[in-house]
Amino acid sequence: MEPLIITTAITGAETTKEHQPNLPITPEQQAHDAKECFDAGSTVLHLHVREDDGTPSQRLERFAAVINKVRETVPEMIIQISTGGAVGVPFDERIAPLKLLPDMATLNAGTLNFGDEVFMNSPADIERLAAYCKEVEVAPEVEVYESGMIDYVAKLKKKKIVKHDPLHIQFVLGVPGGMSGKPKNLLYMAEHLREEIPSATWGVAGIGRWQLSCGVMALVMGGHIRTGFEDNIYYHKNFLAESNSQLVARIARIAKEYGRPIASPQQARKILGLSSSHKKRT
Q1: 54 located within any domain
Q2: In angstroms, what is the C-alpha Rg of the chain?
């Protein structure tokens, strides 16, 4: 079984300071959390950015400030930017930060109801983002919210629209409007992916109450795990987590007790098909 890659989604676009007082907002706060999470066992940082007042942002300058601060503070961290932004952000703004050449960027594989809103990802925009990832040599992480998206991604890969190999798929389970994080759903998604794209690696982001159960399942199934305040703000029911790193440390501890090693930055890069370092890209 491969070493476990732990991704931390430290901020997101929906969580607020009112929900979670320890949410990192500023570049300094996000770099601080990234370092704590790295020290706890996380090697991938899933990055949304905010303005100082907490407003979700896709501003290139804000992404640049955070990325530079993270690379200064924890240079070995793999940086994966979100192209989802907040629901409703124009697509051109969503993809603009790829100009900064992060290690990875998310590629959402379809449109879905997202709570009371609609998260739009048209086929034309998906193909456009896939082409841009290839152009700037940024590895896509494909975000999949229900099983039909696996078939769609397999089609894109067959047509060589999505070309990175191995392709990394992130199951996002528990979003209102998508598949829930029930154990049978994760088992089915992993089996379906194996049939359609045998070479792909996969991880899971369980939303809210599904975070820990999906993570433990992925741990024993050979998948990888995303945790952090974007997806879940609690450590136990009704008890807020103290920090993003507390959520990372819990997964790392369970992995150690199970006997699955945590991936080093070098191992994570190899598993994800990334270059050995971001330094030559800056």
Answers
A1: yes
A2: 17
Positive or negative torsion for Cα 243, 246, 252, 258? negative
Report the alpha-carbon distance of residue 163 to residue 171 in Å, rounded: 19
Establish if 45 belongs to a structural domain.
Answer: yes
Q: What does residue 6 show for φ and ψ, rounded to 5 degrees? A: -105, 120
| CA-closest candidate to residue 142, choices 164, 168, 124 | 168
pLDDT-based confidence at 278, cuts 50/70/90? low
Q: Which two tokens stand for residue 151?
A: 């078939």
On whether residue 67 sits in a domain, the answer given is: yes
Average pLDDT (212-237) is 97
pTM strictly above 0.85: yes
Total domains present in the chain: 1
Question: For 121, what's the count of Cα atoms within 13 Å in the CB-facing half-sphere?
Answer: 28
Query: Residues 244-264: pLDDT tens digits?
Result: 999 999 999 999 999 999 999
For residue 110, give the CATH number of its domain. 3.20.20.70
Distance CA 83, CA 89 (A): 10
The tokens describing 254, both together, are: 């369970």
Residues of 125-154 as b/e, b for ≥16 C-beta within 10 angstroms?
bbeebbebbbeeebbbbbbbbbeebbebbb
In a domain, 1, yes or no: no
Answer whether residue 93 shows pLDDT above 90: no
Where in the sequence is the domain holding 36, given as residue range(s)? 6-281
User: What are the tens digits of pLDDT across the range 146-184?
Assistant: 999 999 999 999 999 998 999 999 999 999 999 999 999
